Amino acid sequence: MTFHISGFIFVGVLLKNKSLKITLGEIAAIQTGVFAKPVTDGEVVYLQAKNFDEFGKLQTKLYPEIQYQSINEHHLLLKGDVLFAAKGVKNFASCFDRNNLSAVASTSFFVIRIYPKQRENIVPDYLAWMLNQENIQSFLNQKARGTSIPSIRKTDLEALEIELPPIEKQRIIIQLAELMEKEYALREQLQNLRKNL
């Protein structure tokens, strides 16, 4: 299960009024991740798709696999960066929220960094949530190029239109999404427990 939840019908009501439509390229800079060879004595975490769970959440246990000297400082992730997995058949977005973790994204990802002047207008978690919605995913999948490993182009992401409601509504949407994730997890636990009765 990914982050495009069935509660989108309710969220659609929140988005209906006073929402702006703006392209992703207008609110954020988009850059590709870096290519690096993992080493045993690393200092920086090298984020790959395998480091995320089925909800697009970053795993708790992460290990540094590359050295500082092998990367440019501007590639280091900042809290609030949104990672978008653009290669392969499973595309997802995740908000990087680790304060004290030195990490870079692999080339499987685009790193979306909201412009400073736009940070008062958009919650990074909302942006990640929006990119994970089924209609957005379907649109981007149609734009994907390549046969063996389909990939989404930077220009298509930049041109993508995003619904931008007032920031308080964005926070409500994220709270709703988080509660529905917890509900889903509890349902899974209940089903597993019933199987063991």
Provide a compact summary of the structure:
The protein is α+β, with helices and mostly antiparallel strands. The protein has helices at residues 8-16, 24-27, 124-131, 134-143, 154-158, 167-195, and strands spanning 20-23, 28-32, 44-47, 64-66, 82-85, 93-95, 103-105, 109-114, 161-164.
Description:
- The protein is α+β, with helices and mostly antiparallel strands.
- The chain has one domain (8-195): Adenine-n6-DNA-methyltransferase TaqI, Chain A, domain 2.
- It is built from 6 helices and 9 strands.
- It has helices spanning 8-16, 24-27, 124-131, 134-143, 154-158, 167-195, and strands at 20-23, 28-32, 44-47, 64-66, 82-85, 93-95, 103-105, 109-114, 161-164.
- Strands 2-8-5-6 form a 4-stranded antiparallel sheet. Strands 4-3-7 form a 3-stranded mixed sheet, with no helix packed on it. Strands 1-9 form a two-stranded antiparallel ribbon.
- The two termini are 25 Å apart.
- Residues 1-10 have low confidence and may be disordered.
Distance between the termini: 25 Å
Number of helices: 6
Give the CATH topology: Adenine-n6-DNA-methyltransferase TaqI, Chain A, domain 2
Structural class: alpha+beta
Q: Give the CATH class.
A: Alpha Beta
Beta-strand residue fraction: 15-25%
Looking at the overall shape, the CATH architecture is Alpha-Beta Complex
Number of domains: 1
Low-confidence stretches: 1-10
**What global shape is seen?**
globular
Mean of the pLDDT scores?
Answer: 87
Note the run of SSEs as H and E: HEHEEEEEEEHHHEH
Radius of gyration computed on alpha carbons: 18 Å
**Order of strands, widest sheet:** 2-8-5-6
